[in-house]
Amino acid sequence: MAVGDKLTMALAHTLNLDGTPDTGYYIQGARKILADKYEYIMHGKLYKISEEGSGKAVKAYVFKL
């Protein structure tokens, strides 16, 4: 990333757009999911979030599963 670039990050319990729990199975293209809106997704367990300074910087720590 470069200075001035924008980053959007979503933390979600499910990839289903209606908020229903995931079944644990992913079938590509079967239906629209939250991941379709992003270039990169990661699955893991979030264990810490911290803000720095004025709150414009956030660190999210994830155990990648």
Automatic annotation (TrEMBL):
One BP annotation, GO: DNA-templated transcription
Highest taxon in the source lineage: Eukaryota
Gene Ontology molecular function, alphabetical: DNA-directed RNA polymerase activity
Provenance organism: Hevea brasiliensis
Protein name: Uncharacterized protein
InterPro entries: NA-bd_OB-fold, RPABC3
Keyword field: Nucleus
Keyword field contains Glycoprotein: no
Gene3D superfamilies attached to this UniProt entry: Nucleic acid-binding proteins
Key word tRNA-binding present: no
Any one GO CC term of the record: RNA polymerase III complex
Entry similarity comment: Belongs to the eukaryotic RPB8 RNA polymerase subunit family.
